[in-house]
């Protein structure tokens, strides 16, 4: 079992962050469900949501490539202190054998991280973000009410 969640909108100050986009993938090697939600224009809490599914081979390929990429990337220390990638985006990958999360569970504040991402690491993180958003756009095609 695994869960991968991308959240765009993780930085906040006195007021918590506004989540603009979510891609959530849950499943196992046999397949997965995917949800892609986008904040509607002029709204702070109303989302357009679509769902879909991934087949076994798609899930295994995606999970393997994400694990490989994320394992090479640092996370902010302490958790939630700073958006070290500068994309206002957090990713959480949780499985039995791999855990990786940036942005903290409640987003990022205005603190300073002891760990910073290099330009190369920022590009690698951006590629992971693009992969997850692209997966959401490609496979989450069933509109939800």
Report on this structure.
25% of the residues lie in helices and 32% in strands. By secondary structure, the chain is an alpha+beta fold. The protein has a single domain (2-143), classed as Mago nashi protein. The chain has a seven-stranded antiparallel beta sheet with strand order 6-5-1-2-3-4-7, covered by helices on one side. Residues 96-120 are annotated as: Disordered.
Task: Please sum up the structure shown.
With 145 residues, the protein is α+β, with helices and mostly antiparallel strands. Helix content is 25%, strand content 32%.
Proportion of helical residues: 10-25%
- Which parts are unreliable, with pLDDT below 50 for 5 consecutive residues or more? none
User: Which CATH class applies here?
Assistant: Alpha Beta
Radius of gyration: 15 Å
Average pLDDT number: 93
Globally, the shape reads globular
The number of helical runs is 2
What characterizes the major β-sheet?
Answer: 7 strands, antiparallel
Q: Find the CATH topology.
A: Mago nashi protein
Structural class: alpha+beta
Distance between the termini: 27 Å
Major sheet strand order: 6-5-1-2-3-4-7
Helix and strand pattern:
EEEEHEEHE
Number of strands: 7
**Residue share in β-strands:** 25-35%
CATH A-level architecture: 2-Layer Sandwich
Number of domains: 1
Region (Disordered): 96-120
């Amino acid at each position: 079992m695994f869960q991968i969640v991308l959240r765009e909108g993780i930085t906040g100050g006195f007021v918590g962050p506004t989540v603009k986009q979510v891609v959530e993938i849950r499943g196992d090697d046999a397949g997965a469900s995917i949800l892609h939600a986008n904040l509607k224009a002029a709204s702070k809490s109303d989302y357009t949501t679509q769902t879909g599914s991934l087949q076994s081979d798609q899930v295994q390929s995606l999970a393997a490539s994400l694990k490989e990429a994320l394992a090479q990337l640092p996370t902010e220390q302490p958790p939630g202190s700073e958006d070290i990638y500068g994309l206002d985006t957090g990713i959480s990958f949780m499985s039995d054998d791999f855990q990786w999360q940036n942005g903290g569970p409640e987003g990022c504040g205005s603190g300073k991280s002891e760990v910073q991402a290099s330009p190369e690491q920022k590009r690698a993180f951006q590629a992971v973000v693009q992969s997850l958003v692209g997966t959401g756009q490609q496979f989450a095609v069933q509109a939800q009410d």
